[in-house]
Specification:
Blueprint: E1 4-10, E2 22-26, E3 39-40, H1 51-54, H2 57-66, E4 71-76, E5 79-82, H3 91-94, H4 101-108, E6 113-116, E7 119-120, H5 126-133, H6 137-149, H7 154-158, E8 165-166, E9 172-175, H8 176-196, H9 209-224, E10 230-236, H10 242-255
Helix pairs in contact: 5-10, 6-8, 8-9
Length: 263
């Protein structure tokens, strides 16, 4: 079996997979008075206090700095990797379909990176989707940062103006060496972005742009470094209201009304 740990970013008590491959991480614990009984992202070297803006990335940073496993991954309390077709609508039963250590190990015999299947937006590009649903200034500033700090990555970044699909959710499982390189690159960009954009100009929902931009940056980094990977399904533990989600998507595209909450 491969030496794998998948951190599960969570801000509340929740049913977790019954497999020791998983490590639930209480993200933003530095700012909370409650103890969920999970590992806190405020232990060791951390950026826990940035959680209101960096979202699950405070869990990723903690894993990067404090875990020593050969493979490290990131998932969410209500969203997981899966290789099985889920036939149940009951959250407790859906948890039984989550990726196991044995399944992950078999995939990692063939590749060093596991990613979720791409999300396709069909009728608009990644850039336009972000522009329609979020405030575009942070993403445009990110391009400037890449141009200054990592100009070799600019052609890959500019593809978001034409691409209509991407690996989302900041979910992945990576070989430790690859993770080190990715996180060094990712957080250097985000910490520079933090210096340039005043988060207080946005409401709580839109101030979380660091986590959203990092979703886009993942593919840019993988494409630039010509890294191979294998995709697997993503299973939502809770039911997704696709009608409401789809309606909000179309309203944002055609009227300019930005998202006001997560779905």
């Amino acid at each position: 079996m491969k030496d794998v740990k998948i951190t599960i970013a969570t801000h509340k008590k929740y049913k977790m997979p019954n497999d020791n491959i998983y490590v639930p991480i209480h993200v933003g614990k530095e700012l909370k008075n409650e103890d969920l009984g999970y590992e806190g992202d405020n232990e060791g070297e951390n950026i826990s206090s940035k959680n209101p803006y960096f979202c699950e990335l405070t869990g990723l940073y903690w894993a990067w700095k404090n875990l020593q496993n050969e493979y490290i991954g990131l998932a969410h309390y209500r969203r997981h990797f899966s290789v099985k077709k889920c036939k149940s609508k009951i959250p407790e039963e859906r948890m039984d379909y989550v990726l196991t250590k044995e399944e992950a190990s078999k995939i990692l015999e063939r590749t060093n990176i596991i990613l979720p299947k791409k999300r396709n937006y069909y009728i608009e590009t990644i850039y336009n989707h972000y522009k329609h649903t979020m405030y575009i200034e942070p993403l445009d500033e990110t391009r400037k940062i890449i141009e200054e700090m990592y100009p070799d990555y600019l052609p890959q970044f500019d593809r978001i103006y034409k691409k209509t699909s991407a690996h989302m959710f900041n979910m992945f499982i990576m070989n430790r060496e690859i993770l080190d390189e990715y996180c060094e690159w990712l957080f250097s960009i985000l910490f520079e972005l933090e210096k340039r954009i005043e988060v207080n100009k946005y409401d709580d929902f839109h101030a979380r742009f660091f986590g959203r931009i990092s979703e886009i940056l993942l593919d840019i980094w993988i494409e630039k470094n010509n890294l191979s990977y294998e995709e697997v399904k993503v299973i939502d533990i809770e039911r997704v209201n696709w009608i409401k989600k789809g309606s909000s998507f179309l309203i944002a595209k055609f009227t300019g009304k930005k998202y006001s909450k997560s779905f």
